[in-house]
Each structure stands twice: as structure tokens, then as C-alpha cells.
Design a protein that fits this description.
Blueprint lengths: L6 H7 L12 H4 L12 E6 L4 H10 L4 E7 L3 H10 L4 E3 L2 H7 L6 E4 L6 H10 L3 E4 L7 H14 L3 E3 L7 H11 L6 E7 L26 H5 L26 H10 L1 H7 L4 E6 L13 E7 L10 E7 L6 H7 L9 E6 L3 E4 L6 E3 L17 H9 L9 H17 L6 E5 L4 E2 L3 H4 L17
Parallel strand pairs: 1-2, 1-4, 2-3, 4-5, 5-6, 7-10
Antiparallel strand pairs: 7-11, 8-9, 8-14, 9-10, 11-12, 12-13, 14-15
Helix pairs in contact: 6-7, 7-14, 10-14
Length: 451
């Protein structure tokens, strides 16, 4: 199984071998060779153009040096809307047909489809030498994530995962505060989200029955590599799939990639070695209503000497009340946040709110830094054109996604500490957990190295 080098190996080598899968973000990626667009304009294809796919398409197309050449979606309604907006673009229902037909006519793709199809499309596009923007999480399984990172390195193209919040003001202001050294060495991080409650169903069993497939939806293509099952109206397409084990990655995969990002990014975390879930187990079909997963990472220069503890909470649960009260965080603490506990104070970061140093009385005289505007999508386009380095390349996104996906594995082994061999991509003495690091693909949907 492909195994990535540690951050320390990466920095000491100052170069990355062709077989390696780097884990560090922008700093490590800056020295990596990349193919760039030679004709001066980026010829782009959108794979998945409804919902977030529409947003990705609009933001990428807004760059003055992008031409939208092709569009693909399994939902004819989504495709019609996008085709009306970009009438010169060729349209497809099957992403495989798009990549085969448009070979040589496109330079890049975005992949904004249900999680279970991320890896297949990303790997195929990378092997075709394309620049790839992939939505979070990078993949649905840990093995897929490592394969995608390896293929990205081999392709040498510009890659970026859709964690656009790292380009937003709140996170970059939090990073500036962190780098000023106010909170000292970090020993523990708590990360939480209000998802999935009120967003999509979880904690329910497999729903019986079937409904007629609407004419506008190519259901077999929507299923793709996932096991075959009947269509149910409003249960899977277009958004509720996130909580389904075969299709999505639950709250950890959806929001963990946004909310754990500051922890891995600011602290330089690159090696996780144990996990423990203290919440309910998944049902036969969906992730649980809530979860709490404790993870331990190898220490870095930004942390205390012992293992760095990160605790994930979802379903509306937050950091323990005793911790929040001790910091004077108040009852209005953010619904989606990453809380750093340091030797000299704490930092509360949220993708949607101004960061806070805690206790606030101690840091009353510390202003929130001003930061310049950054466009996540434009930055990736500029990377494709050879002018910049992507801020969330697959080399980094792979480990961020892997962290969230490992948390999902832990859900099935409640109240048990799972020891994880990061380099070997295996749990020690737990073959049942190892089996959850990869998945089989439906016949006819295998991609070399996947499924």
C-alpha cells in the first residue's frame, strides 16, 4: 500500500521522490515541479455542475483567463442550467465520455460530485495530465486518498481541494494571531460542528422500497462505483447522500476537512497514531446522529512534547463545558469551530467568525490582524497557469482527508483505542478496521489501483 513520508523526512530531503506522497501543504508543494498551461488560457471542464458544483463552476469561470469548454452532470436539470450559462460548452452525462472525447481540448477539471466518485474521476483526470480541483473530502476511503495523492505527484499538475475557508479572512486572521505566539505551545485541540442535525439524515437504517427514477436523473451513473440499490426520492439525490455510508463521509468528512484544517495547518501535524470513539456506532446504512472521536498526533515544534490530542465533536456537541467556562468563552461560542488550547492561552478559530484569543480579558489589547483578500478558486487557476502555488494541494489534502476518514473508521469500534501505523496504513491487530480503509467497486467501474 502506498505510504507517505513524514513531514520531517520531507523537510530534510528538500525534494520529493516520484513514488512518495507528500503530506505538507503549501510550503512543501512550492518546490514540486508542475505542468503549466502553455497557451495562456485555461480550458476547463466542470464535472458536477449542480449545488456546490455550480458554485465551483461560477467561481472558476469568473477568472478572466478561463474558458469553459465542457460540462458534465448526471442530472439533466443541472446540466441544462449550466449549458444555458455557458452555451458554447459541450455537454455530457458520463464523465468517462467527457474525458475521452475532450482529450487534448481541456487542461483542467473540477470534480464536485458525491464523495464515492471523487477518487475515480480524480485519478482518471490526473493520469490524463489534467489540473484537478476536487471537492472535499478528497476521497471516500483512506486508500483512495493515498492513491490520489500519489497520482497527483506523478502528474505534476496543479491540484487543489475545495476547502475554500482557508482562503477566507477568519482563518487567515487566526493564523496570524497564532503565529504571533500569544497562546504558547499547543497541547490539545477541540473541533466541533453543528452538522448533521438539520442538514441531512444520519442515525437511520436502510430505507426499504423504491421509487421511479425521474427522467432527468441517470441513476446508474449517479451510483457509479457504489453498490447497486434502488432509487428513493429525496433520500440520496441531491444532498441527503452525505450521511449514507456507501456514498458520503458524514459530518466528519463534510465539515472535518474545513474545521480540522487549521489544526493540521497551523501545527504542522502529519502523523496520527491512535483514535478512540466515545459515541454511537453507525447503523446498517448511515453514520450516527453524533460522534466524539479522540485522536493523538505526533508532536511538532508548535506543540508540547507529548502527543497532540485532537477531539472531534459533531451533532451539535462542542468542547466540554468545563473547558469553555474556564476560558470564559460564554454561551455564544461558535457552532462550527476549532479551539486551540495552549500553555499561555487559547485561540478559537471559525471559518465564519472573527477569531478570539481566550480568556478575552488577558488578550484585550491584542488587535485582530488585517489580512489581504485571497480567492481560493483564482489561486488554483493561477497555479494552473504557472503563476502561483495552490494553497490546498492534494499533497496536503490527502492527509487532512485521511484524518477525517480515520475518525469515521473509529466510529465502528466504540470505547476502544485503535493503534494506527501511519506509514504502513494499517491498524495494529485490528484487521476488521483495516478492511474499512478501502472499498470494492461495482463491476464495470474499477479504475486501475482503485476498487
Amino acid at each position: 500500500m502506498p505510504a507517505p513520508p513524514t513531514r520531517r523526512e520531507l523537510l530534510s530531503a528538500l525534494a520529493i521522490s516520484a513514488a512518495a506522497v507528500p503530506l505538507l501543504g503549501t510550503a512543501a508543494c512550492a518546490s514540486a515541479p508542475r505542468r503549466v498551461v502553455s497557451q495562456g488560457r485555461l480550458r476547463h471542464a466542470g464535472i458536477g455542475v449542480g449545488g456546490m458544483g455550480w458554485h465551483d463552476l461560477e467561481r472558476i469561470a469568473a477568472h478572466p483567463e478561463v474558458d469553459i469548454v465542457a460540462l458534465c452532470d448526471v442530472d439533466a436539470n443541472n446540466l441544462a442550467k449550466a449549458a444555458e450559462r455557458f452555451p458554447d460548452a459541450h455537454t455530457y452525462t458520463d464523465w468517462r465520455e467527457l474525458l475521452a472525447t475532450e482529450a487534448g481540448a481541456i487542461d483542467s477539471v473540477h470534480v464536485t460530485v458525491p464523495d464515492h466518485m471523487h477518487a475515480s474521476i480524480e485519478v482518471t483526470a490526473l493520469r490524463a495530465g489534467l489540473h484537478v480541483y476536487g471537492q472535499k473530502p478528497l476521497t471516500r476511503t483512506v486508500h483512495e486518498s493515498r492513491v490520489v495523492a500519489r497520482e497527483a505527484r506523478a502528474a505534476g499538475t496543479a491540484t487543489q481541494m475545495g476547502i475554500q475557508n482557508r482562503a477566507g479572512h477568519p482563518y487567515r486572521q487566526a493564523l496570524a494571531l497564532f503565529e504571533q505566539g500569544h497562546i504558547g505551545q499547543v497541547y490539545e485541540v477541540h473541533v466541533w460542528t453543528d452538522r448533521p442535525k438539520g442538514w441531512w439524515p444520519q442515525g437511520v437504517g436502510k430505507r426499504p422500497g423504491s421509487d421511479p427514477v425521474p427522467e432527468h436523473l441517470a441513476w446508474d451513473l449517479w451510483l457509479g462505483a457504489a453498490p447497486e440499490r434502488p432509487y428513493l426520492e429525496k433520500i440520496y439525490h441531491a444532498f441527503a447522500w452525505r450521511g449514507v455510508l456507501d456514498f458520503g463521509t458524514g459530518a466528519q468528512g463534510d465539515m472535518g476537512c474545513h474545521l480540522m484544517d487549521p489544526a493540521l495547518w497551523f501545527l504542522g501535524l502529519d502523523e496520527i497514531f491512535n483514535l478512540r470513539s466515545d459515541g454511537p456506532v453507525p447503523t446498517d446504512d448511515t453514520y450516527p446522529l453524533w460522534s466524539r472521536v479522540r485522536m493523538e498526533f505526533a508532536p511538532t515544534p508548535a506543540t508540547t512534547r507529548g502527543p497532540l490530542v485532537l477531539v472531534w465533536h459533531d451533532g451539535g456537541r462542542k468542547a466540554p463545558r468545563a473547558i469553555l467556562d474556564d476560558l470564559g468563552a460564554g454561551d455564544d461560542v461558535y457552532d462550527n469551530a476549532c479551539l486551540f488550547l495552549g500553555t499561555d492561552g487559547a485561540l478559537l478559530a471559525s471559518p465564519y467568525e472573527v477569531p478570539r484569543l481566550l480568556p478575552e480579558a488577558r488578550f484585550a489589547d491584542v488587535p485582530v490582524p488585517e489580512v489581504p483578500d485571497v480567492d481560493h478558486w483564482f489561486g488554483w487557476v493561477d497555479a494552473c497557469l504557472g503563476r502561483a502555488d495552490p494553497v490546498a494541494p492534494f499533497s496536503y489534502a490527502s492527509f487532512l482527508s485521511e484524518t477525517a476518514l480515520l475518525g469515521n473508521v473509529a466510529l465502528s469500534f466504540p470505547h476502544e483505542t485503535l493503534l494506527y501505523d501511519h506509514e504502513g496504513m494499517a491498524f495494529l491487530g485490528r484487521p476488521e478496521a483495516d478492511a474499512m480503509l478501502s472499498s470494492s467497486y461495482r463491476p464495470g467501474w474499477a479504475v486501475r489501483g482503485l476498487g
